[in-house]
Amino acid sequence: MLICHRHRFIFLKTQKTAGTAIEIALRSLMDRGDVITPISREDEQLSRQLGYAGPRNFRAPLHRYSGTDLVRLVGRARLKKRFYNHIPAAQVKAQLPAPIWDGYLKISVERNPFDKAISSYYWRTRKQQQAPPIAAYLRSCPRSELSNWDIYTINDRPVTDVMLHYETLAAELLALSQRLALEHPLTLPAQRPKGQHRRDSRPWQQVLDAASQERIREICAREIEAFHY
User: Fold this and answer.
1) Distance linking the first and last C-alpha atoms of the chain
2) How far apart are CA 194 and CA 24, in angstroms?
3) Is the pLDDT of residue 175 over 80?
4) Residues 101-105: contacts with CB within 8 Å, 24+ apart?
């Protein structure tokens, strides 16, 4: 996730929605005092190759450490994070002064939940030599792998001022660039992070069986209704 003070926005990063590609594009706008949470080593390398800023200001200051945090720091050299990659909006709000949370543009991105489920399956089974069939995987995977709702909502209500949509991302990034009054429009990296793992490009209706579709409809009912998927 990102907090940009010069352009006054907060980016709430969702899963399997081109969130990393969008985040890398937005890093071109970040200054020294902004918040940038870490992404994978491969994606950080891509960000550096493009000349963009790396992770900064995401760790908690020492005065926010509890006794347990201090034990982890001393025993495991584990620093406490104030912000992290897919942090929910409620936690971001709790960490920020009200004028920043209330006054900054809150941006996120969503995707057709059925298509997103297929992408999630290929990503999360990418290292398995013999991955389970997609129907078996979707039957038992955690609900959090299928729904991003809790990332951009508080008390079951979306907090976003700008909700980008995966399916129309290019046009919406152009509109966002205009809203932020950018000199140059935002562009996604030519090398799309994590985009090479999905091996079945058929429409989701041909990939998902009836039981898989029903589970996705049940878990993602709120975003299906909110964004008319």
Assistant:
1) 25
2) 13
3) yes
4) 101/10, 103/8, 104/3, 104/8, 104/9, 104/10, 105/8, 105/9, 105/10, 105/161, 105/162, 105/179, 105/180
Integer Rg of the chain from CA: 18
Q: Residues for the chain: how many in total?
A: 229
Report the DSSP beta bridge partners of residue 2: 11, 36
pLDDT at position 55 over 80:
yes
**Residue with structure tokens 């809150």?**
106
Q: Which residues, 6 or more positions from 96, have their beta carbon under 8 angstroms from its beta carbon?
A: 3
Q: What are phi and psi of 102, to 5 degrees?
A: -75, -30
Q: Is the pLDDT of residue 184 over 60?
A: yes
The answer, as to whether pTM is greater than 0.85, is yes
The Cα–Cα gap between 47 and 41 comes to 10
The DSSP string of 39-63 is --HHHHHHHHHTT----BS-BPPGG
Find the mean pLDDT for residues 208-217: 98
State how beta strands 153-154 and 157-158 pair. antiparallel
Task: State the residue for tokens 């079951």.
Answer: 156
Question: Exposed e or buried b for every residue in 88-121, given b needs 16+ CB within 10 A?
Answer: bbeebbeebeeeebeebbbbbbbbbbbbbbbbbb
Whole-angstrom Cα distance, residue 123 to residue 160? 26
Q: In CATH, what is the architecture of 2-227?
A: 3-Layer(aba) Sandwich (3.40)
User: Across-strand partners of 128?
Assistant: none
Extents of the domains making up the chain: 2-227
